[in-house]
Amino acid sequence: MEKKITTPLTEDKVKDLKAGDTVLITGTIYTARDAAHKRLVELLDKGEELPIDVKDSIIYFVGPTPAKPGMAIGSAGPTTSYRMDAYSPRLLDIGLRGMIGKGLRSKEVVDSIVKNKAIYFAAIGGAAALIGKSVQKADLVAYEDLGAEAIRKLEVKDLPVVVVIDSEGNNLYEIGQREYLDSLNK
């Protein structure tokens, strides 16, 4: 089922999203990969303020290419999410509501998604140029020295994603595999 949501991503919006739903996201999201996540958690460890407000926000695990003329951003394909697994539970505990990436997540992250009523979306790997077209505006927010991995604030319109792990812990990767194996036994 295709659904449209607008950020901020509140708990009420998350509870209506189920594993397998196709979602079009409009509003503000942030980009960050593992180097930026490490710095965010280090700030938390020191009791310092983060350069972004993660409450009810979505972080897209992406290191976009430079923008072409007339575009807000270049290709923006998802990064493999397990690289953020060591940091995601800390951010979820302080209000991060959504993550966008690709691939499996650890049990600790899934447990934290359920505990914090959050959600994990997958963006389509290989569709980086198409995803980039959903970005209306991109502003550098923090960690410019990280280049493509710096934190950016994106304004997106109808960014296409799929719910992989919903707030109840239902995991599309596991469901899909189970359904496929069941179909072989019929």
UniProtKB/TrEMBL annotation:
PANTHER family assigned: L(+)-TARTRATE DEHYDRATASE SUBUNIT BETA, L(+)-TARTRATE DEHYDRATASE SUBUNIT BETA-RELATED
One Pfam family per UniProt: Fumerase_C
Keyword Signal (UniProt): no
Name of the protein described by the UniProt record: Hydro-lyase, Fe-S type, tartrate/fumarate subfamily, beta region
UniProt-listed InterPro entries: Fe-S_hydro-lyase_TtdB-typ_cat, Fe-S_hydroAse_TtdB_cat_sf
Lyase is among the record's keywords: yes
Family: Belongs to the class-I fumarase family.
The species this protein was found in: Clostridium omnivorum
Keyword line: Lyase
Domain Fe-S hydro-lyase tartrate dehydratase beta-type catalytic: 6-174
